[in-house]
Design goal:
The chain is an alpha+beta fold. Helices cover about 45% and strands about 20% of the residues. The protein contains 18 helices and 18 strands. The protein has helices spanning about 10-35, 45-65, 75-90, 90-110, 115-130, 140-155, 160-180, 180-185, 190-210, 285-300, 320-330, 365-375, 390-400, 415-430, 440-450, 455-470, 510-520, 540-550; strands at about 275-280, 300-305, 310-315, 330-340, 340-345, 345-350, 355-365, 380, 405-410, 430-435, 470-480, 485, 490, 495-500, 500-505, 530-535, 555-565, 570-575. The protein has a 6-stranded mixed β-sheet with strand order 15-14-11-18-16-17, sandwiched between helices. Strands 2-3-1-4 form a 4-stranded antiparallel β-sheet, with helices on both faces. The radius of gyration is 25 Å and the shape is globular.
Length: about 575
């Protein structure tokens, strides 16, 4: 039997994330089904799951970096990774709020994980989440978080007692949410976001005590929580049946959440804004303060979470362009997602056109290649440096492609398992998905170049796989520290030339290293060289490399693309 933690160290944080992901995976369909306010779009459980999936992946990355070490990562590293992962992977209103809750907790738990720190962490989390919402509404996840913090603050005992108190306080507050929001009372359900938070706190109980909390009423200060109008304490609709219009366990086809969280939303039956706008933003505190004011004037459901230069922005507006422009004025927005709402019979619904027959979903390392692939008809997912997409983001892109058949190009060997999980999830939703195991962006470009949607699916996949497989790939990178490589010992600052994933060249500057890499690759033959330049690489380098290829290999053509903000200064493909 594993030893139970006396405080929340890095291992406990890892366990908590894993158990929270499992709990939300089990309850996702039920949480989706009770999502009735402000829009019954059935995304809350899915959005919370995807948010925690991103948090858990970030924590796992911290542990992976310590695999060769004798000790576990520092607690501060684990909790900060958890918060950062949740921030960059947050989905919908409820996911955004959960990200801020985890960020608030991380700010305290980084200094210690005992009972006293946990009490303060829960209080700071609840306060931070409420401040992040432009116009808080009671009877939501904010109310449940505040109740958890209040209940924990009243306990001066050990960690296990505090964790149980927080869970019990949240459960009691959840049961009362239908009394605070009339639409919940009429549907006979509790708040979906609040129920998701209860699941996350239940995972914390299991982490600390070794036992999952009982799914049902627990005594809270002598009073068990009471269902409203005969409803279930944990939020199933009255009578135990799904909300009308939602299959039990059904997952919507929509690609982007339609603001499921009950935050600052119009009264039931009112018409809301036409668009949901979401983006990550690199900006300072002063710029974000002005951004909040501007976005608040443009629309509603405004939630801005984050800090230390990185923010997650969520708002419902009629003028999506103005919301994005406001982000551009404040800093650098990216991962921009805009969803259009159509008004029909007083409810906001997403317009679903007839799906196309076939689409390609491709992961790209920068904005430049995203534009190139979009022009070629592909649906793109941008992998920012240090921020690989989670499986949920790939599933979102597959849904966004809205096709019966999808070819998925991950363009990174490290994304193989993530892409496979996304493909499997999409198949359960009725989409035929083929995963072409591209290991680099240049292989994806080659595969996309031979894509023909009018031929048979299997034939198209074979052709794209063959084109990718015939493309050797390389990239230039800057060594961060002294280390052993296949090409010898490198020093910090050296330019590394990686061919097919292995270090083959160690150089002093980018141009000379790039020429050596090209010569080695072309020694085995080739007909086409593809160069993808990073954001700060001058056009003169591309001109020089193109001339170098022409001088040594008259029959070889060269094409050049701008990759934008990407990890490597130069990507090279030879086919």
């Amino acid at each position: 039997m594993p030893q139970l933690p006396d405080d929340l160290d890095a291992v406990a944080v890892r366990t908590w994330c894993s158990l929270a992901l499992e709990a939300l995976g089990r309850e996702r369909a039920e949480i989706d089904a009770i999502n009735v306010y402000p829009i019954a779009d059935g995304d809350t459980g899915t959005n919370l799951y995807l948010t925690v999936e991103s948090a858990a992946a970030a924590v796992e990355a911290v542990f992976a970096a310590h695999e060769t070490g004798a000790t576990a990562p520092a607690t501060a590293d684990a909790v900060r990774a958890m918060a950062h992962g949740a921030l960059i992977g947050a989905r919908g209103n409820s996911g955004t709020i959960l990200a801020q809750l985890l960020r608030g907790m991380a700010g305290v738990l980084a200094d210690g994980g005992d009972a006293a720190h946990l009490r303060r962490a829960l209080t700071r989390a609840a306060d931070a989440a409420r401040r992040a919402v432009a116009h808080p509404v009671e009877g939501t996840v904010l109310t449940v978080a505040a109740a958890a913090a209040e209940a924990a603050a009243g306990e001066e005992a050990d960690l296990r007692t505090v964790v149980h108190a927080a869970y019990d306080g949240a459960l009691a507050a959840l049961a009362k949410t239908p009394e605070q929001l009339a639409v919940l009372g009429r549907a006979g359900v509790v708040d979906a976001g609040g129920r998701g938070l209860v699941a996350v706190l239940g995972a914390l109980v299991e982490t600390v005590t070794g036992q999952a909390p009982v799914r049902g009423p627990r005594t809270v200060h002598g009073k068990p929580p009471t269902p409203v109008d005969g409803g279930s304490v944990l939020g199933l609709p009255v009578g135990g049946t799904p909300v009308e219009g939602f299959p039990a366990g059904g997952v919507p086809e929509a690609d982007v959440p339609v603001g499921e969280g009950p935050l600052d939303c119009p009264e039931d039956g009112a018409t809301g804004p036409a668009f949901e706008v979401i983006y990550l933003l690199e900006a300072g505190d002063e710029q974000v303060a002005r951004l909040r004011t501007r976005l608040d004037a443009l629309g509603d459901s405004l939630v801005v979470v984050g800090g230390d230069g990185l923010w997650h922005v969520h708002v419902h507006v009629d003028d999506a362009g103005a919301a994005v422009e406001a982000g551009v004025e404040a800093g650098r927005p990216y991962r921009i997602r805009i969803t259009h709402f159509a008004t029909e019979s007083g409810h906001d619904l997403r317009v679903q056109a007839e799906p196309t027959q076939r689409a390609v979903v491709v992961v790209v390392p920068g904005d430049g290649l995203a534009g190139l692939c979009t022009e070629a008809g592909a649906t793109t997912v941008i992998a920012r440096p240090g921020e690989p997409p989670a499986s949920g983001e790939l599933v979102d892109a597959i849904r966004r492609a809205h096709a019966r058949e999808v070819v998925l190009l991950p363009n990174d060997a490290a994304l193989r398992h993530t892409a496979a999980a996304a493909a499997e999830q999409a198949r359960t939703e009725g989409v035929r998905v083929a995963l072409v195991p591209t290991r680099a962006a240049v292989q994806g470009i080659a595969a996309l170049a031979v894509h023909e949607p009018d031929r048979g699916f299997d034939e198209d996949v074979v052709a794209m796989t063959a084109a990718a497989g015939a493309t050797r790939y390389a990239e230039l990178a800057v060594a961060e520290r002294q280390s052993w490589t296949m090409a010898g010992i490198c020093q910090a600052g050296d330019i590394l030339g990686l061919i097919d994933g292995d270090v083959a060249v160690i150089g002093a500057d980018v141009p000379a290293t790039a020429r050596t890499v090209l010569d080695r690759m072309l020694a085995a033959g080739g007909e086409l060289v593809t160069l993808v330049l990073g954001e700060d690489v001058p056009d003169s380098l591309a001109d020089a490399l193109e001339e170098h290829v022409r001088e040594g290999h008259l029959a070889v053509d060269t094409v050049v693309y701008r990759g934008g903000h990407q990890r490597a200064p130069l990507l090279i493909g030879v086919e």
